[in-house]
What does this fold into?
Amino acid sequence: MKKISIVISVYNEEKALGEFYSESRPVFDSLPWDYELIFVNDGSSDGSASILRELAACDKRVKVIHFSRNFGHEAAMLAGLDKSSGDGVVCMDADLQHPPECVAQIIEKFEEGYEVINMVRTQNKSAGLVKNVTSSAFYWLLNRISDVYLEPNASDFFAVTANAAAVLKENYREKVRFLRGYVQNIGFRRTTLSYEARPRVAGESKYSIRKLFKFSINTILCFSDLPLKLGIYSGMVVGLFGLIVMVNTIYEWASRGTPNGYATIVVLLCFMFAMLFVIVGIIGEYIAILFTELKDRPIYIIHDTENFDV
Ligand code: UDP
Ligand code: MG
It folds into this structure.
């Protein structure tokens, strides 16, 4: 019998975990494949760890990875992928925003021969207007400037076969990364399924606007080198502009004597310096990423695990 590994990232989800388990367990029990639930406790500081230990003690299918501290959602998904032993792996959230019923459809797709399944949300009731608008703007920009195409509504709910998971395990170990983007660009037979994102069952979203902003910037830097070329383009535009100003100045000097250009000089200086600093800053961002990759620190550190050796 084939087996599916279901990876669930958990960060301070004590309010949602009980409901997640009691609601999803019967759904998973009725699956045509055997399953394992890999909960990744991403350094929770609430009661999540003890709830997971209890679940693992009474259910051998529940496996738990405890991180030594918080490493972030993507690190948690990667750890789950790394430890998975199924013929297919599904990554999902612990807050029931990703309906467990979808796993049955995912297995159907696997059996039809698909190897990468991206879940696309049709509706996100819990996300406000601001989140929806900024998310669309982000994908629009990213797809304009990067050489890969990223599905705008693809979520971090996805499924891959063991084959495709191996690629993520071995070759996509970047420290600054966008897992969702990689999943869409590793090739393989790919399809999408849609689902309706439900509101969170309990607790609150762990992604603040600040975190999302940082995440978006990093993603753009990872998928595009256009920002690096900004210096060349703006240099050319400004050079042309300078040439026009020069010709104009010579003309005015010849016809009316030395022009008085104090204001022009100040404005131009401010403008030029602002542009220079922005470009230097962009280069700095790339260097910061290079530095992070070079240091090669671990993506996550495991404190202990449960039920992996049974
Ligand atoms: N999460 C995590 N580590 C973090 C932040 C979040 O493992 O540092 C988990 C969280 O417990 C949840 C999932 O990632 O299962 C998605 O987070 P959340 O629901 O807060 O994000 P949203 O659905 O609002 O985008
Ligand atoms: Mg959520």
The mean pLDDT is 87. DSSP finds ten helices and eight strands in the chain. The pocket of uridine-5'-diphosphate (ligand 1) is lined by residues 9-11, 13, 42, 70, 72-73, 76, 93-95, 97, 205-207 (CB under 6 Å). The CA atoms of residues 161 and 272 lie 52 Å apart.
